[in-house]
């Protein structure tokens, strides 16, 4: 018999917590992006687990779309980071507070 | 309780889950606590690989392959490319809290999130309708099932996804473009390369 779904959900919860704490604690924009990827992966693991438990292919389709959205998000996000770095040196999330509207 | 179910699992399943789970958690800790962004990116690869192993364990073979190809093959490489391009592969300087007690509050909120999600995850969570869009245990391969679902039930979201990718590509091009036309024109007299770049930008308008 395979592992119970609750254990996968527990692991996903731990991964999500790591990602959330990382976004809150780290100041490096790139590392914050990586932490967002961690949270997305935790959500993906949850989707796959429910897909198996509920015997439904819809969860795997959702993960497929999450992968696409994550790729697009990383492209745009890193583009913004590069654009910010053109203007000023520094990789912390505190720099854009100097923006004047 | 899930503990009893864990005890009844077969040894290969149990070993796979425990090892892959440990790899995932170790990689996540490396991302959060690693001082060097390059090390964080490589730790992210570790976590993504562990998640892919868990995908295989849960009979999502196609998504495991896509996870490896898209995430570790494209996204993390993009991360590393940007890190190297911007030259931020130094240790983080601004580790001081921007707000007083930020780290304590962050850890507290993280513990709260963990407790909440664990409560939801180990409670009565199998309340949804079974097989709303198509059963998993049909005599089809995982790829065939996923393809059938995507190209029939989820055809419209799939098409919208293509629009999203086009928007992302256009956004990346616009964001990565240099907007210093005046500087390019002034420097263009002596520098053929800058001149060519400036001309292309002006004529491409």
Descriptive report:
The complex is a heterodimer of chains A (101) and B (205). Chain A is mainly α and 101 residues long. Chain A has helices spanning 5-25, 29-53, 58-87. Chain A has one domain (5-90): Helix Hairpins. Chain A has 3 helices and no strands. In chain A, helix 1 runs antiparallel to helix 2 and helix 2 (29-53) packs antiparallel against helix 3 (58-87). Chain A is elongated. The termini of chain A are far apart. Mean pLDDT of chain B is 77; it is low at 184-205.
Keywords:
heterodimer; A: 101 residues; mainly alpha; Helix Hairpins; 0% strand; elongated; B: 205 residues; Four Helix Bundle (Hemerythrin (Met), subunit A); 9 helices; globular
Question: Layout of helices and strands, plus pairs?
Answer:
The complex is a heterodimer of chains A (101) and B (205).
Chain A: H1 5-25, H2 29-53, H3 58-87
Helix pairs in contact in A: 1-2, 2-3
Chain B: H1 2-8, H2 11-33, H3 37-57, H4 61-86, H5 102-122, H6 142-153, H7 155-176, H8 181-187, H9 192-203
Helix pairs in contact in B: 2-3, 3-4, 6-7, 8-9
Question: Summed up, what is this model?
Answer:
Helix content of chain A is 75%, strand content 0%.
Mean pLDDT of chain B: 77
**Poorly predicted residue ranges of chain A:** none
CATH topology of chain A: Helix Hairpins
Taking the alpha carbons of the first and last residues of chain A, their distance comes to: 59 Å
CATH class label of the domain at 9-93 in chain B: Mainly Alpha
Q: Rg of chain B from C-alpha positions?
A: 24 Å
CATH structural architecture of chain A: Orthogonal Bundle
Major interchain interface with per-chain residue totals: A-B, 76 and 95 residues
- Please name the fourth-level CATH homologous superfamily of the domain at 9-93 in chain B: NADH-ubiquinone/plastoquinone oxidoreductase chain 6, subunit NuoJ
State the major sheet of chain A: none
